[in-house]
Amino acid sequence: MKHIRSVTVLGAGTMGSQIAAHTANAGIPTLLLDLDAKTAANGLKRARKLKPDPFFTKHTYRTITVGGFDSHLAQIAESDWIVEAVVEQLAVKQELLRKVEQHRAQDTIVSSNTSGIPIATISEGFSDNFRQHWLGTHFFNPPRYLPLLEVIPTTDTDPVVVKSIVAFGDRVLGKGVVVAKDTPNFIGNRIGLYGVMRVLEQLVNGKYTIEEIDAMTGPLLGRAKSATFRTLDIAGIDILTHVMNNLVTQLETDEERAAFELPPLIQDLNARGWHGQKTGQGFYQKMRTDSGTEIVTLDPQTMKYRARTRPQLPALDNAKTIDDLGTRIRTLFTGKDRVGDFLRATLTPLLIYSAEVAPKIAHSIDDVDRAMRWGFGWELGPFELWDAIGIETVLRTAERTENPPVLIQSLLKKTDDAIQFRPSQVEPAGPELQLLRRAKDSRPAVKQNQGASLIDLGDGVLGLEFHSKMNSIGGDTINMMTMGVEEASKHFDALVIGNDGPAFSAGANLMLVLLEAQEENWDEIDLMIRSFQSAVLNLRYADVPVVVAPAGLTLGGGCEVVLHSDRAQAAAETYMGQVEVGVGLIPAGCGTKELLARFSSQAPAGATDRLPYIQRAFELIGFGTVSSSGSDAKQLGLLQAGDQITMNRERLLSDAKHTAMHLAKTGYRPPNRRTDIPVGGPDTKAALELGVHLAWRSGRISEYDVHLGRTIAHLLAGGDVPHATSVSEQYLLDLEREAFLSLCGQQKTQERIAHTLKTGKTLRN
Q1: How large is the average pLDDT for residues 353-369?
Q2: What are phi and psi of 442, to 5 degrees?
Q3: CATH code that applies to domain 188-420
Q4: Could you count the other beta carbons within 10 Å of the beta carbon of residue 257?
Q5: Parallel, antiparallel, or unpaired: how do β-strands 503-505 and 494-497 relate?
Q6: Fold identical between 7-179 and 188-420?
């Protein structure tokens, strides 16, 4: 394969600048070009202001060099991969690529980020060498956060080029890569936009409101929280129009073109300039009121905005009790109510269309499912939905039992109990993807309870999976952590802690803490803290290496688990921090102790003033700082130099397993217990408390924040020691526990916990 060590992006618009941001996230030197250097610099500046942030850290943009087509195009000769991302006009792309052809090296790969223009058409008339190194690479917006990368070769593309881009996209950029056929709008948009059209039909015919449709096409259906119309507002109704119009001009049959013709409602919105979020109004509008802001909803019949109404759909409320997504969708689909009517009217044609078009646009039905999961955030792709609802049910609803799509006829397989495409879910694209699910499918759990399970990951590695709500840590999880260390020490070579959920762990079970505090069961809370501290220390001093694989939210107790691993193998998208102060508490699962030990030990040998180092721990805890990425967690000191980052989330546990195996094979020995952690004493405490006082005087924190700040200062200074000295690990753990218990008894702490549990937000009382 060709090694890609440098990238050029042509076009510093919304997509081009974000593609450059993500190659920079991956540590690849990137050249960003536009008409001139000023235009490119402005594009990069706009990207730095985008929300969500396309960069892993605030300094990542510095690895991007900007320039202009007018004076810097010759520099592309140094690039291994050139990505064209200019305006979606064939003539403009071809004119620019003619210049690229003159300057590129003979082995440089060139691709287009077009979302719909045929890849082969763009390269017509170019040299054989150019066409052999030419293909489509369609990123989904925003490139950092949406996994899907569609790779579209032409008949002229060298297979080595395809293999190189697929490997680079997968392992270096962390993308879910699907190789698509060179057909209009490729896979994701072809299927996704067809589904959007069927939903728009149900809105236009007046049977359902915008709120009802968004309630039926959101998380309960395994889709994003933004559902349909909030998503369209975010993406831009003008962009939807452009993509749809482009697609219609390329489709082959009148019947298919008619299926993608936008209704007059969309034309009306465009004519009014109501393009969605960027213009302040679309299907929804945010209005300022005397009490703040209010979201109002478009009435398509009057084209006026009205107050939002809560959908009255009992079937959705009932479905919330069904945990299994496939069962939930099947129940809703077959319901004899308005929800069932809607899903039969929208999902049925979508599934039929997916089956009819799949052979034209994709190399397998699995690739169709992956494209929709990775690009549109569907938990189940179209063919997984066929299986979940039941193939016979779908065909009967579509009145196609006698003439099913050709693909359905060829893929149907009889089993003892039903007709289905495959006996289980879609297989991942590679043997190292979704390691945990493969392990669970192939062998029973070693041990399990409501909060966690021990899974044999193979090759002498035991896995510990959290699976409570948001993977919060309660008694069941703590017990399984303890059993995991015991089991791994007896029968395995290493222990890996991780899961496939969106959050590694949102922290301790706050509801349990609040209930015990309100009942004044202080002994119970003390026992909980002692148990968790013991379980965390067992990880640190286990006889076998412990590798933790954080991803997504890794907060509070979840962060403390990571801090006490031998190695962390973190996902690129890891949002990690000790956030206990937000609920009026302090890290008491060894977190305060560990951050103090980690930063205090960074002071040079013989240093008399450790305040600058201890202050880093104070700020992380006191501000409740959460990393913006795995890379940022390293910069903050929450991850250490030896910890690694995995770009592709689905490879995370496989990478963690390999790290654990390497530690085991190279003669692992557990560390010695700490007996000499440096603390600053009264001088450090006074300095930290002064900072707290000044923050209060300036109005930046509340009086209760002052109390919390002083508590943290007391801990990090070593409690009541008379001077700077060294203390044992257990001494600091006792201080943690005492402080936690004291804070649990405070009314304002209980108010903070209750507010967070109710609203998901922090109360600054």
Answers
A1: 95
A2: -95, -20
A3: 1.10.1040.50
A4: 14
A5: unpaired
A6: no
| pLDDT tier for residue 461 given thresholds of 50, 70 and 90 | very high
How high is the mean pLDDT of the chain?
Answer: 94
Residue 170 DSSP symbol:
I
C-alpha to C-alpha distance for 24 and 39, rounded to whole angstroms: 19
- 7-179: CATH number: 3.40.50.720
Backbone CA torsion sign across 464, 465, 467, 468 = positive
pLDDT band at 421, cuts 50/70/90?
low
Q: Tell me: domain 435-744, CATH 3.90.226.10, correct? A: yes
The helix or strand, by DSSP H or E, that contains position 287, with its residue range, turns out to be strand 284-289
Are 477 and 483 a contacting pair, CB within 8 Å?
no
Average pLDDT over residues 438-467: 95
Cis preceding-peptide flag for 359 (omega within 30 of 0): no
Closest CA to 238 of 34, 14, 10: 14
Q: For the beta carbon of residue 273, count every other beta carbon within 10 angstroms.
A: 11
Of 218, 222, 574, 176, the closest CA to residue 388 belongs to 222
Q: What is the pLDDT of residues 21-63, one digit of tens each?
A: 999 999 999 999 999 999 999 999 999 999 999 999 999 999 9
pLDDT at residue 561 tops 70: yes
Count of C-beta atoms within a 10 Å radius of residue 50: 15
Please report where in the chains the tokens 């690129």 appear, as a residue.
572
Per-domain residue ranges of the chain: 7-179, 188-420, 435-744
Residue 432 has pLDDT above 90, yes or no: no
Residue of 314, 43, 363 lying closest to 178 (CA atoms):
363
CA distances from 574 to 21, 277, 377, 570, 616 (A): 17, 27, 18, 7, 20
Distance CA 471, CA 504 (A): 6
HSE-CB at 121 with a 13 A cutoff on CA atoms is 13
Rounded to whole angstroms, the Cα distance separating 109 from 117 reads 19
Q: Cα–Cα distances in Å, from 758 out to 459, 556, 736?
A: 44, 18, 27
Contact in structure between 66 and 40 (CB atoms under 8 Å):
yes
What is the rounded distance in angstroms from the CA atom of residue 467 to the CA atom of residue 452? 5
The 3-state DSSP class for residue 504 equals strand
Q: Cis link prior to 263 (omega < 30° from 0)? A: no
Helix, strand, coil percentages, rounded to 5, for the chain:
50, 15, 35
Q: Which residue in 117, 100, 103 sits closest to 11, CA to CA? A: 100
Residues 627 and 729: their CA atoms lie apart, in Å, by 26
H-state helical runs in 123-209: 128-132, 159-167, 188-204
Question: 160: buried, middle or exposed (CB in 10 Å: 19+, 13-18, 0-12)?
Answer: middle
SS3 letters across 507-521: CECHHHHHHHHHCCC
Global pTM reads: 0.93
Express each pLDDT in 277-310 by its tens digit. Answer: 989 999 999 988 877 789 999 999 999 999 999 9
- Residue found by looking up tokens 């077009």 in the block: 114
Overall average pLDDT of the 645-674 stretch: 96
Least Cα distance to 77 among 128, 159, 165, 8 occurs for 8
Q: Does residue 430 register a pLDDT over 70?
A: no
Spatial CA neighbour of 508 closest among 762, 750, 753: 753
Give, in order, the Cα–Cα distances in Å from 324 to each of 320, 374, 379, 465, 743.
Answer: 10, 20, 11, 18, 39
Task: State the distance between the two ends of the chain, measured CA to CA, in whole angstroms.
Answer: 58
Q: Are 491 and 681 in contact (CB under 8 A)?
A: no
